[in-house]
Specification:
Enzyme class: hydrolase
Family: Belongs to the inositol monophosphatase superfamily.
Structural class: alpha+beta
Shape: globular
Bound molecules: D-MYO-inositol-1-phosphate
Function: Catalyzes the dephosphorylation of histidinol-phosphate to histidinol, the direct precursor of histidine.
Order of helices and strands: HEEHEEEHEEEEEEHEHEHEEH
Number of domains: 2
Strand content: 15-25%
Helix content: 25-40%
GO biological process, one term: phosphatidylinositol phosphate biosynthetic process
Pathway: Amino-acid biosynthesis; L-histidine biosynthesis; L-histidine from 5-phospho-alpha-D-ribose 1-diphosphate: step 8/9
Distance between the termini: 46 Å
Length: 267
Amino acid sequence: MTDPALSELLDLALEAARRAGALLRDGRPADLGVAATKSSPIDVVTEMDIAAEKLIIGYLSDFRPDDGFLGEEGAGSPGSTGIRWVIDPLDGTVNYLYGLPTWAVSIAAERDGERVVGVVEAPMRRETYQAVLGGGAFANGEALRCRRPAPPLDQALVSTGFNYVGHVRAHQADVAQQLIPRLRDIRRGGSAAVDLCDVAAGRLDGYYERGLHPWDLAAGDLIAREAGALTGGRPGLPADGDLTVAATPGVFEPLQAALDELGAWHD
Ligand code: IPD
């Protein structure tokens, strides 16, 4: 039975994500432009990223004013309850800017530093992914299971993403070029949160990326693991900004080893 404290966090995350997803879907201005840039001129923020983060933090704070927050668009406070919300109000901002459908709201809750709840709301796909630690992963009420049996690595469909900083991208392109002949194919969906949920749903055999932030991966990592996928970073390390790897067991180990051999975590 799910811990009632976690059920409360899950319900709040689901409702905050639903409201932010509706705002982003229904409120996207026709003349949407770039409001600011971050790590490079192509790392953009729109007015809608900012509005969605404000909505999510406002909603969660109404119910849990003493919790901590870490949000992509600047929200940050340690809180005093041991619960911290890790929020990407709009993961896949470039897709959203261009009107492509693959983007999502990602909300995770950590308890004493451990991820315990993850919600990824993908409005244009009409999909809500959710997981509670130890309770399995679900999409629109259906249990998720990563792909089984796992194919050999050279038959695996693997997604990746590219960082916004020039020298990191150049190295990522080099790694991808060397990896492609060892896989069935590579995809670049444009939202790390959705990529991780696609691994959970068995639509991808694996996913990897260097340079993610905690808000990109917090919810999706828990959803993937609760669906039976393995996640990690460099061999023996957890998924982090150096390297995030998620895959069905059987693909995870050779993919992680190949990425390690190719030096995917550095340039
Ligand atoms: C980005 C997306 C993208 C990934 C980038 C992320 P954002 O998040 O997840 O797929 O390749 O590394 O920064 O900026 O759209 O929230």
